[in-house]
Write a structure and sequence with these properties.
alpha+beta, single chain, Nuclear Transport Factor 2, Chain: A, 229 residues, transmembrane, elongated, membrane, 2 domains, 24% strand, transmembrane helix
């Protein structure tokens, strides 16, 4: 009788051990499931546009050429008023808000209000484009200054054209020095992981399109005073 009792106790102990093992496996599955669920669904990797010679980079590294392309694209879209600057400019600021730092968003809102009050927006059509021969590939070292792994200063040299109806009212050659910062806070609305922090220096009018940016510097123009570039 004692032998049967011992066998039963042994089986009960074995069943208890199996139950504990199942519970441990279930807990491990929960932990693994939570880790899989919380893992990022996308990972942004910045790849330089010219891969003819290959490229090896850390995944968090942002090549200067990508920073320049981002800056020019967002700034060009901000300054594009296809029909009426009084409506297009604030609409651009709202649509592109994920690509500006809060301070830059506030600055551009003030710029809009000042231009509107000065009558510089109503029925104005505006667009900017790179001055030929003054893009990133022509002089990359002067276009993007790497301040740190998360901060850059990008120099754009563009022509800004404005029309009132069918009449051209402005064509200005302008040099913009724009601050760019890393901003991986909202990949759903900002897949670039970068944001404009507005001006590093006041915009400068270029009286003519010089061959290089190393020549005499034109006078700075305050973008919040009068007919800004």
């Amino acid at each position: 009788m004692s032998r049967f009792r011992n066998e039963v106790m042994h089986l009960e102990a074995h069943v208890k051990t199996l139950r504990l093992a199942v519970a441990a496996l279930f807990a491990l599955a929960l932990v693994l499931g939570f880790g899989w669920w919380s893992a990022p669904k996308t990972l942004t990797i910045h790849v330089p546009p010219d891969l003819r010679s290959g490229s090896t980079r850390k995944w968090w590294d942002v090549p200067p050429e990508n920073v320049y392309a981002f800056t020019f694209y967002i700034w060009q879209q901000t300054q594009r008023w296809p029909a009426n600057g009084e409506e297009d400019y604030p609409r651009n600021l709202k649509a592109l808000s994920a690509y500006f730092t809060p301070g830059c968003q506030s600055f551009l809102q003030q710029d809009y209000e000042l231009r509107r009050n000065n009558g510089e927006l109503r029925q104005r059509v505006r667009g900017i484009y790179e001055i030929p021969g003054r893009g990133y590939g022509d002089d990359p070292t002067s276009r993007v200054q790497v301040v740190s792994a998360a901060d850059w200063i990008v120099t754009l040299e563009v022509s800004a054209d404005e029309y009132l109806g069918s009449e051209q009212v402005k064509r200005a050659l302008v040099r913009y020095a724009l601050k760019v910062v890393r901003s991986d806070v909202d990949p759903e609305h900002n897949p670039f992981g970068l944001a404009l922090d507005c001006y590093a220096r006041a915009p400068q009018r270029i009286e003519s399109a010089p061959a290089t940016v190393s020549g005499p510097q034109p006078a700075a123009v305050n973008p919040l005073q009068g007919e800004a570039p």
